[in-house]
């Protein structure tokens, strides 16, 4: 939600929102979740040159300073606008368009004057929230009017450009947003999280492009988000966690929040849906080496190389935010993914996951392991069982992949202890 954008509707489709339909059905040819082979471009898994990655590219939020072909060897998914999508897609990068059907305001391409598209109180008043001084009207996900507008806009979008998915902002239960973004004058009439989530699943069934929703970071108290239930929709291919292991005001997330992110990643992975891990720090990449290693090691603890996507926003000269560490692909874990992150905690205190085969730029470098201490105020011993096996650490220098940034698996030997809120990735 922090990176949500205000969208202006192209003139050629402003008339779409004025239309309304009744009983709009699920799109008859709604795509099923993307197969694993599609995530890596049909390349043999062990030849993956990088983990799945995402970034803004072109459009209103991404760089225009590089040719799209320069990004293609490093970037899997690009969020972009319809003007640039087809050219980016032709370069070999999957494209997604940002839409926010759950909150709309004048200027949003999904905005309408049809009152039936909006959520109302029992007294009949429209419901709104205010985000960064922007007043947004809450839509009714069960509304045939809203579903029709969403479906027609996506049809228009496909006629104008090549997109692979919709990035849907502000999805999930309203109670998760209420704590910092109150709804006024109150909640929708006879509101329940169960009904709202069921209706949002229905909303996401109607577009003729698959949906990746943003809302996994809207936690259920100290537990993972209720929005995970949206993954039950056959047209929903995954979810985005905004502020994943790293945020602008919390560069190294720790404690219970870190555990919630890990457990969210595990729950999405178990459903074989895309987990998009979006870091939000805009610190210059070259000044954030420790933060980058901590976040990437945390990501590797619970990731699936076929369905987990890594998206960073560290500042770079080129404007492409893909980091060299994404060229490290860990494969063949010694233990299958656990159901909860606590299972990966070793007796000494650190969290560890080992992989039999690890690759850098598609070249095997032997086994590797991610070792993370997410706790404040205490260090933990580097696990004695690993000392005889791993003798080097991950070494990063510089900024992004297009800015001279480098990755090496020949860094110094692991230290005797893993410091508080620190991490290592270690190699033979």
> What's the count of strands?
20
**Gap from first CA to last CA:** 41 Å
Instruction: Specify Rg, calculated over alpha carbons.
Output: 22 Å
| Widest sheet, order of strands | 1-2-3-7-8-9-10-11
CATH T-level fold name of the domain at 32-326: TIM Barrel
- Under the CATH scheme, which architecture of the domain at 32-326 would be assigned? Alpha-Beta Barrel
Name of the CATH superfamily of the domain at 32-326: Aldolase class I
What number is the mean pLDDT?
A: 91
Helix share bin: 10-25%
| SSE run | HEHEHEEEEHEHHEEHEHEEEEEHEEEEE
Draw up the topology in text.
Elements: H1 36-39, E1 52-56, H2 68-71, E2 77-80, H3 82-90, E3 94-99, E4 103-104, E5 128-131, E6 134-138, H4 144-160, E7 165-168, H5 174-178, H6 193-205, E8 211-214, E9 236-242, H7 255-270, E10 274-278, H8 289-302, E11 308-311, E12 328-333, E13 351-360, E14 363-373, E15 380-381, H9 384-387, E16 392-393, E17 395-397, E18 406-408, E19 417-418, E20 422-427
Helix pairs in contact: 7-8
